[in-house]
Amino acid sequence: MKFVNNVELGDPSTKNQNFIDIRVKLLCCRYWYLDLWDCHDMVFPFWRIYWNKNEGGQLKLQDSVYEMTSDFLYIISPFTSFSTRYLKHHKYDSGIHVSGKNLSEKHNMDYYENKYLIHFFTHFNIGTPFDNVFPGIFKIELTEHLKERLVYLTGRLKVENHDFKLTFNLKLQAFIKEAISNIGAELWKTINIDSRVLTVHRYIEANIGNKLKNAELAALVNMAPNSFARLFKDEMNITLHNFIQNRKIAKACEIFEHTDESIESISYSLGFSDRYHFSRVFKSITSISPALYKSGRYTS
Predict the structure, then answer these.
(1) What is the per-residue DSSP string for 197-220?
(2) How far is it, in rounded angstroms, from Cα 182 to Cα 191?
(3) Range of the domain at 126
(4) pLDDT tens digit sequence for 73-129
(5) How many CB atoms lie within 10 A of CB 28?
(6) Same structural domain for residues 199 and 249?
(7) What's the CA dihedral at 172, 173, 175, 176 to 10 degrees?
(8) The CATH number of the domain where 125 resides is what?
């Protein structure tokens, strides 16, 4: 007679399994027609996925230019400085200028495809440490499976673009995870960062509203402040101070997307001395003011 060990959760195996926890935080998802898309040197602390149904859209990253086609998704990692353009109606060589509206079922798609750029986009974060990968634009082939999901998402966005049901949320998250899984292993270097840096990284995320000091963070991993600062810069390719500022602004963007909190309230909740200090840091990172971000007029 054989006896089976009484294993918690009903798992008969004695081998531990280690999984990476991917938590998609959805910020926005829209399906627009654009007549102007002149956005220069945009830098935001979240992921983006872009897809255009018709041609004429262009992305630029330093000296690389991406002529966007409907056969590919374009994934942009956080803190990537990039520019966009709709060639048909190009007007501005600097600043952020966007003009367009949500598509709905009432729109004649043949007419709008001939006159405007048909643009799908979603903004999201996926948590520690994946929101701190190297900046870049990643061109991903639109597989049949991704195309099916995209048809569903764009179809639903033409019906409802405010209060999303569970099915839409699940399918959008599945679409995002499948898309980013096709980027490749070279992007995910941050999952192998030093455990001490990762410990501090998680502490920063959990205490983002506090005034975080280098000595306090270094003490968490029993290191001298200067030694830890050097280790952090070597591992993350950014100074500890700038990293904290970036994460505070990332949190501010998330709050702006999901609440009507005032700029003053958000600045204090994130540990800034006043609105003006917060606004200076926000603009230095994103190139636009928090008031413009809050208005949503820049969004694309």
Answers:
(1) HHHHHHHHHHTTTS---HHHHHHH
(2) 17
(3) 25-188
(4) 999 988 888 999 999 988 888 878 888 999 999 999 999 999 999 999 999 988 777
(5) 15
(6) yes
(7) 120
(8) 2.60.120.280
